[in-house]
Amino acid sequence: MLPSDLTTLFDDHQPHTLLTPGPTPIHPDATRAFLRPMLGHMDREVFALNRAIQTDLQTMYGTAEGAFTALLAGTGSLGMEAGFANLVERGDEVLVCANGSFGRRMAEMAARYGARVRLVTAPLGEAIDPQEVAAHLDGVQMVAVVHGETSTGVLNPVPAIAELVRHSGALLTVDAVTTAGMEPFHAEAWGVDYAYTGAQKCLSAPPGLAPIMVSERAFSRFSARRTQTPSWYTDFEGLRAYWSDHTYHHTVPVNLHFAFHAALRAALTEGLEARALRVRRMGQAIFAALSPLGFSHYVKREADRLPTVLALRLPEGLDDAGLRSRLRDRNISITGGLGPTAGLIWRLGLMGEAARPQPYRIFLGALEDLLG
Ligand code: PLP
User: Fold this and answer.
1) Is this model's pTM higher than 0.95 or not?
2) Whose CB among 22, 38, 115, 167 lies 3.0–4.6 Å from 110's, allowing a Cys bridge?
3) First CA to last CA across the chain, in angstroms?
């Protein structure tokens, strides 16, 4: 017998209002697809499904047909790691734009794979200045930037950075974890060589998959490596063997593929532009409801604001942790700041199925009630 509190934990499936900046509520189509009868990872139906996922990912990332897309069996961080593992060799110069926690994670990973890391930074809550990138490009093999810095709610100017990197010969790696599938992303037109996200973010699929995109140029750079990649699991050649040549590499999580495919289909059926518009409308409506209570934008410049993560400075005297805990008692989850912004901001998720009026009505109603 389980102790009674654990019984409650496992049996009591209360509806939950999940408004964190990831994971997001799972799309109902994905929940249904997840429950399909299991198939083997080498089954012909799974290969057909994988092919459909690859094509849809090309649409989501805005790539050319020659770009390689696939799912890694892990979260967004594995997508990040795979880029450095495959595209960096010991001693390479890698310029990392680091204006928040995830930019710093990129820098740490690049260093672990032997890169000599140069940092371009910006004050917290501000976007990277593309001219700063331009000033440090000399001799660089890769530039890495987080498109949407979840930790602060900042949108970095990837198109402007890409325009500068394009002429330097360096590869461009973009963390698209809070953007791809919800915000405009045009890998081919911008000149992005490697991008990744996490299934649980803008697509509202279960966590555990990292959709990646590798440009033809990046794949050629990988094929010309002087040494093998130190990562067996994410080796692009092994992934291509499975995804393109249907050769066994590792057992992919087939039921997650089912769910992911359904969620990605739903996103593309809604349309990427419609989704971007939905996020903006939701963000404006939520801000209009919260600003009379004393909340203000943490990111000062409007152009620097990431639409999918609304970062709000808390009103003076608000009991951050206490209030979030009382919201959680009512089955509502939101997220506070991270590191230096802890206690200073709230981060409201507007990715995928979180960006809907109904859950925000529940949250705003409860907040009003608690602030009394
Ligand atoms: N990059 C960004 C911008 C993120 O927001 C996150 C997670 O929140 C990650 C990377 C890491 O993703 P995961 O937690 O899925 O490993």
Assistant:
1) yes
2) 115
3) 41
